[in-house]
Amino acid sequence: MCKFPAFEQDWNNPFSEMSDQIELDSEESQYEDEERKKEDIFLILVATDIHLGYAERDPVRSKDTFETFEEILKTARSKNVDLILLGGDLFHETRPSTYCLFKCVELLKKYCFGDRPIQIEYLSDPSRNFVYTGNDTVNYEDPNINISIPVFSIHGNHDDPTGEHQISAMNLLATAGLVNYFGRHTNYESVEIEPILLKKGQTNLAIYGLSHIKDERLARLFLDKKVTVMAPSEEDYFHLLVLHQNRANRGVKTFIPDSLLPDILDLAIWGHEHDCQIDPEQSANSVFISQPGSSVATSLSSGETIPKHIGLLEIHKKQFHMTPIPLKTVRPFVYKELTLNDPYSLRREIAGVDDEGLSNQVIAERMVEQEIEDMIRKSTQLGLEGNKLPLLRLIVTYVDESQAFNMIRFGQRYVGRVANPKDMVKLKSGLKPEKTDTTGIGRYMAQENINLPNRVEDLVLKYFEDNPEDQLQCLSLKTLNESVVKCIDTQELEAPVDVTNSLIKERLKKLKESDVNLADKNIENFLFSVKDDEDDSLFVDNMLKASSGGKKPAQNRNADVICINEDSESDSEVRISPVRGVIGRGGTPTRPARGPGSRGGRGSRGRNRRGRR
User: Fold this and answer.
1) Which of 513, 448, 490 is nearest to 212 (CA)?
2) How do residues 96-119 score in pLDDT, each as one tens digit?
3) Distance of alpha carbon 167 from alpha carbon 142, whole angstroms
4) Checking DSSP bridges between strand 151-153 and strand 180-181, what pairing results, if any?
5) Which residues, 6 or more positions from 17, have their beta carbon under 8 angstroms from its beta carbon?
6) pTM of model > 0.85
7) Which of 10, 294, 520, 574 is the most buried (most CB within 10 A)?
8) Is 158 a catalytic site residue?
9) Residues in CB range of 99: below 8 A, 6 or more apart
10) Span 562-574, pLDDT tens digits
11) Closest by CA position to 87, among listed 135, 139, 49, 136
12) Of 158, 212, 239, 244, which residue is the catalytic one?
């Protein structure tokens, strides 16, 4: 209300003070409107593929993942976010080291515990959302612990459940109340994705979790219309999906095209792919997709050189905005490719070279040395913190055998200047294949301009795909490759041996049980008929269970590798059904006041606290 003008006022403008007061009241009204709007905005920190524990035995890089994870949590606290949403691969190994678990728990307790009010209401049924973690409540409603920033996470292909009891490090964090672990699916005949339902002010949010499933199997489920999104019946929800699958079409392994995502979604957070494409892009079916990428470089590939980011996601009713936040504690990484010319022209490129005194190998080393020095200079210009030794990867293609040199010995010159001196240089032959090569493998590897995959299992699959006459006769290639993936990604070092031995025993058992005439031709035909009977990934999992003292592996069929094209039609549309039994306990969307230690009922938390999100 305006006050009556005082005697000191300017009588030429009797409404001056009144006007100033009205303007002040207007500013306060606008401020209150902004405050009310803030009470309706979800503020979410989004990150994927943190890979805690990667290279922790490396004397130079051992702390990288923990320092970046601390930066992520510190950013979440400084931004006063409502929650942290992780897109899988929090850990690099299925069974992380004791130290890795210790650091993760330490950091989560340091930055996510506290008395800060939680302003989001949890509406769905935790017994359905967290059915595989043994929790009957979301962690910030647990009266025994005080959570200031709740963390919600799915699992990826690196930290997936394994072993006899199918337990992962994510289960340990969830049981301790540090993380809300959701989105796990164990029924591979069909997948029903039930949402976590949250509310803040006038904004309703449905978060759907799709933890990693073998891409071949998930692709088959999509094609068979056995993936169902259990959407809430109310239309005012913002639908957010977080998943961890292959997105890029690499031509060998199955991927999930953007077009397969159900059009009911407003936004998808895509994990597993490490190159950062965090700015949301709209797909063909109008779903926006954000790919935050990894927070640490786990491979020396060009995609890892893209600056690392996390995202600050703001959701207001049906609108959203993603703000990329660059990570400053990551180790600088520079990638480059170099092709050495023929020895004579290469000598002319380097001034002052004595044609008679230096070998072609020394000339090549000098050329590579110049490139390495230039890459080190570039690494200091990336604007990152900590003055960390850089990661370098220089792909050197030579055209003459005399140009090849010892890469490890060369790298010893850069100890103390480069984080990875042993593998910073990779030599690649640009020689044409020899006509005398009769194995086929050397001829295949030496093809010029061949687009080879980055992973060994993809390379093997591609070789047999391009050379159908060289197929394995006894063992299943897909099953063996899955065991290699398990060995590399999750440090199950005995996986290939266990799976191979189990496959051989299974073949012998089937051969004894059959009435096949033991002639060579008959045995060969028999082996071809049974070698691909098993569902590859499930077979490997069961083999690992057996090696851990679990049950005998079950026999499954249908091991086809499914490759979906981007042009997939409506045959693969996702079914959308009303959500069942996930809203409220006892069928109501409201909750009673929380128990002791919970800082009061949720309805009063964070109210009338001006300036706080």
Assistant:
1) 490
2) 999 999 999 999 999 999 999 999
3) 22
4) parallel
5) 3, 5, 6, 9
6) no
7) 294
8) yes
9) 56
10) 445 544 444 456 7
11) 49
12) 158
